[in-house]
Design brief:
Rossmann fold, protein-glutamate methylesterase activity, 11 helices, alpha/beta, seven-stranded parallel sheet, 14 strands, globular, Sig_transdc_resp-reg_receiver, Protein-glutamate methylesterase/protein-glutamine glutaminase, cytoplasm, hydrolase
């Protein structure tokens, strides 16, 4: 039997620390080794207790969670799960935390007993997954936008799917895309209240324009569309972005598989990219894209926070080429330049 995941809780609220401890301690695969009310005592507890995972409150007095996280990822990189609130401020700070290198985030347990039970299960799952994540010193420096060189087909469309670790990966990938890049459609697993903040934060760092997708939008060159979280699926239909109701697919809404399958009719005009994340969302859709003639890429194992979604796609033969994040932008643009474009958006 493997030893439990040694977890340190950092939160300025005594009641929330008690709640988190009760939830995590109920899982036999997790051991709460300590609790700290603020970053300064947490720093000493990290040194003495050597935890596997840290749960970290986003906003605290003294040194805030972001400043503390930045120091951790620079001096002693370790898996960190942020505890956030479902507010605009909480979303913006959480996005920044993920950019800085936090593995994942959870919303603080609240609501009905059923809501709390669901939040508790998710918290335990994410803490255990974080313990297995590949953590590197961060954040990565912003890349320069690569040259579009000889131009790209007007028919090209790029689809990207990502989950755990995807925020950090997209902050490494998207700023490298040039302002005349073909339209990019992205499904990143996150709550509805987070995707607008995510798009707005990315837009500040990118040559392309990044926006939360809206129903009926016509994909334009130089624009990245982030699927709104948790509410509806996103697909491309008859040349427009469609946000449609529907049950979760493989536990996800929006689903990467739904997006990728909608790009299949484009044939070689489509490019599919699957990035870091847990599970297998996107694998089957990517396989269908490849079978239709699309270029398909997956993030390489050594650059993934969680090599789950790319691995699932690789194992079923859906991946044309595995690439590091640094090599991905040029490969995507080359695919848009060199393939014969046969589909119509």
């Amino acid at each position: 039997m493997t030893r439990p995941v040694r977890t340190l809780i950092v939160d300025d609220s005594a009641s929330m620390r008690a709640t988190l401890k009760r939830i995590l301690s109920a899982d036999p695969e997790i051991e709460v080794v300590g609790m700290a009310p603020e970053p300064f005592s947490a720093r000493e507890m990290i040194k003495s207790l050597d935890p596997d995972v840290l749960t970290l409150d986003v906003e605290m007095p003294g040194m805030d969670g972001l400043s503390f996280l930045e120091k951790i990822m620079r001096l002693r990189p370790m898996p960190v799960v942020m505890c956030s609130t479902l507010t605009a401020r909480g979303a913006a700070v959480t996005i920044e935390a993920l950019r800085l290198g936090a593995v994942d985030y959870v919303t603080k347990p609240s609501g009905t007993p059923e809501d709390i039970a669901r939040d508790a299960e998710l918290l335990c799952t994410k803490v255990k997954s974080a313990a297995r994540a590949a953590v590197r010193a961060g954040p990565n420096p912003l890349p320069r936008a690569v040259s579009s060189k000889h131009g790209m087909s007007n028919d090209a469309v790029i689809g990207i799917g990502s989950s755990t670790g995807g925020v950090e990966a997209l902050f490494s990938l998207l700023p490298a895309l040039p302002e005349d890049c073909p339209p990019v459609l992205i499904v990143q697993h996150m709550p509805a209240t987070f995707t607008r903040s995510f798009a707005e934060r990315l837009d500040k760092d990118c040559a392309v324009h990044v926006a939360e997708a809206t129903d009926g939008a016509i994909p334009a060159r130089g624009t990245v569309y982030i699927a709104p979280g948790s509410q509806r699926h996103m697909e491309l239909a008859n040349g427009r972005i469609r946000l449609k109701d529907g049950d979760p697919v493989g536990g996800h809404r929006p689903s990467v598989d739904i997006l990728f399958r909608s790009l299949v009719p484009l044939g070689s005009a489509a490019v599919g990219v699957i990035l870091t994340g847990m599970g297998m969302d996107g694998a089957r859709g990517l396989m269908e894209m490849r079978s239709a003639g699309a270029h398909t890429f997956a993030q390489s194992r050594d650059s993934c926070v969680v090599w789950g979604m790319p691995r699932a796609a690789l194992e079923i033969g859906a991946v044309e080429k595995e690439l590091s994040l640094s090599a991905m932008p040029e490969a995507i643009l080359a695919a848009c330049r060199t393939h014969s474009m046969t589909g119509n958006v």
